[in-house]
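Annex B.
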Amino acid sequence: MPSSVDLAANYAESGVAEVLDQLDRELIGLTPVKTRIREIAALLLVDQARQQLELASTAPSLHMSFTGNPGTGKTTVAQRMSQILHRLGYLRKGHVVTATRDDLVGQYVGHTAPKTKEMLKRAQGGVLFIDEAYYLYKPDNERDYGAEAIEILLQEMENRRTEVVVIFAGYKDRMDSFYSSNPGLSSRVAHHLDFPDYSNADLMAIAGLLLNAQQYRFSAEAEQAFAEYITLRRQLPFFANARSIRNAIDRARLRQANRLFARMAEALTKDDLITIEAPDILASRVFTGQVEGHHLMASGG
Ligand SMILES: Nc1ncnc2c1ncn2[C@@H]1O[C@H](COP(=O)(O)OP(=O)(O)OP(=O)(O)O)[C@@H](O)[C@H]1O
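Probable RuBisCo-expression protein CbbX: predicted C-alpha cells.
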C-alpha cells in the first residue's frame, strides 16, 4: 500500500478539470451551482484517495434536487453533472434520461412499477432527471399511482445509489411543498441546488455566448435593441430565462436570412452573413405589441 496519494495526479487523470472549465466558460452566472459541483468533485476525489490508502470509504449518496424557473439551466447542468460523475468513476456511463410523470406512472393497477423500473433501467449508469417532479404526487387522489412510483424510486435510490443518480427538478415553491409532503424523499436527496432567474446582464452575456458559438454577432445598434428586448420580454407571459434568449436569437437569424435573401442579386460579404442588425430584433412582437403569436410565447419564446 502506498504511504501517500497524489491528489493532483488523480485530478489530472480524471479529466474532470476540462468539464469544470467548460462549465465555467459555457455557463454564465450560476456561481453557487458551480461551487457545489466543485465540492462534489473534491469529495469524490478524496474518497478515491482514501480507498488508495485503504481507509474506510463509502460512496456518498448523490441524489439531487434542482429548483428554479424554466430556462435557468437545470437540464444543462444535469448533463454536465452526469459527465463529471462519470469521469470521477462514480457513474458508469454519464448520460441523462429525462422523465416526466407520464413516463413513470401508469393508468391502471400494476402498470406503474414496470414503468418506473424501466426508466431507472434506462438511466442506469447515468442520471434520471425527473422534470416537474411534484406531478408525481397528487394529494387529492387516494387512488393515484404516483405514490407507488415515489415508493419505488426511494427504494432504488437507496439500493442502487452508485448505479443511478436521481435529480428531481421543478419550480422552487412547488418542489418545497412536494418535499414537505414526502419527507422520506427529501431526506434521501443529498444536494439541493437552487437556480435563480438571470439578471438582464446575465441574459445579455448568454446571448453573446450563443451568437459566438454560431458565428454570429450583433451590430452596435442590434445590441442596444436586444437589451431593450430583454427588458420587455421578461415582463411578458411565459418568459423562460435563457431559453427565451435562445429562441429570440433563432428568430433574429430567421429575419436576418430573409433580409439577406431580399438582396440576392448583390454579393454578400462575410460581415453581412454574420451580422444581426437592429431591424432583425426590432421586428419582434415584443416591440410591436402584437399578441397573435401567443403560441410561440407558450414555448418560452
Ligand atoms: N447560464 C447559462 N449560460 C449559457 N446558456 C445557458 C445558461 N443557462 C441556460 N442556458 C441555455 O438555455 C437553454 C435552456 O436551458 P435548460 O434547458 O438547461 O433550462 P432548464 O432550467 O432545464 O429549463 P426547463 O426546465 O424549462 O427545460 C439551453 O439552451 C442552455 O444551453
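The first helix runs from residue 7 to 14. Residues 27-30, 68, 70-76, 131, 206, 209, 240, 242-243, 246 surround adenosine-5'-triphosphate (CB under 6 Å). Further annotation is deferred to the next reporting cycle.
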